[in-house]
Amino acid sequence: MPETIVVPLDGSDAAEAALGPAAAVARRTGARLVLVSSRLGGPGDPDAYLGDIQTGLDVPSVETVVVRDRRAPGAVDLVAGRHPDPVVCMRTSGRSGLRAVVFGSVAQEVLRRARVPVLLVGPAVAPDWELPTDVVACVDDRPASRSMVPLAAEYAGALGSRLWIVTVVPARGREADPARAAAFEDACRRLVEERAESVAPMEARWRVVHGDPAEEVIAMASGFPAALMVMATRGHVGLGPATVGSVTTDVVRRATGPVLARAFYGFD
Asked: Sign of the CA dihedral 157, 223, 89, 114?
């Protein structure tokens, strides 16, 4: 679980929409909330702006940081690197993938640069979002995707939530080659069973579903009140050509809970 939750703010109402989920996680876990702004593209008086927000937050521990010589992606990277076990929590509109977000168009750059998880708060997440009853880890057979399961288990345990592990088998694969799809489904079931066992003593429920990856993941999330989704942002979901990046974009835009994502560039 994170010891630090870094929230980048640029003075806009949109950016401040990340504060609710960030504060909810901080209250449950005891993590320190770090509010970050920049003099390059941020509010006119970032010190006063962050101070006002700090005063209005009901969290155990909060600090403010104004970065004076770096724009948003560099500022976030710098602050996260100086704090223990950080996660970045930021708002994204989802209007154009992951690009239209706080500090201008920087979410994709933050994901690219960050070596830590990023909690993306999409437009369907309510301002008063509280803790989820379920954490849903979306996995495939790639190392990057598998590595997200222990992270999902940590969050589920700390938040007092149930853990689900889900893998999607694209429906078109079954139509084109039923034998190949059946073999892949068996492999998926073994994968999720193995992942579930790896997070003992926590009980992990698992599911293998068929269909469009984004649609099935969103449908899975919609079955639970404001579930927290956990996804890698590289590789494939199931066998289809849709990358996790594109699936994550769709999920962030439509999910009623935040999406915990991590970029794994260079993984096969």
From this structure: positive
* Sheet order of strands, 259-262 included: 62-67, 32-38, 4-8, 86-91, 118-121, 259-262, 228-232, 134-138, 162-169, 204-210
Q: Is the pLDDT of residue 208 over 90?
A: no
Distance, in Å, from the CA atom of 103 to the CA atom of 6, rounded to the nearest integer, reads: 14
Distances (CA, A) of 210 to 179, 182, 204, 233, 246: 15, 11, 20, 20, 18
Instruction: Determine the Cα–Cα distance for residues 44 and 66; give it in Å rounded to an integer.
Output: 12
Q: Are 29 and 158 in contact (CB under 8 A)?
A: yes
Instruction: Set out the domains of the chain in order of their start, with CATH numbers.
Output: 4-121 (3.40.50.620), 134-262 (3.40.50.620)
Which phi and psi angles does 100 have, rounded to 5°?
-90, 90
Q: 């790896």: which residue's tokens?
A: 198
Which of 89-98, 120-129, 162-171 has the least mean pLDDT?
Answer: 89-98
Q: What is the pTM of this model?
A: 0.82
**For 134, phi and psi rounded to 5 degrees?**
-140, 145
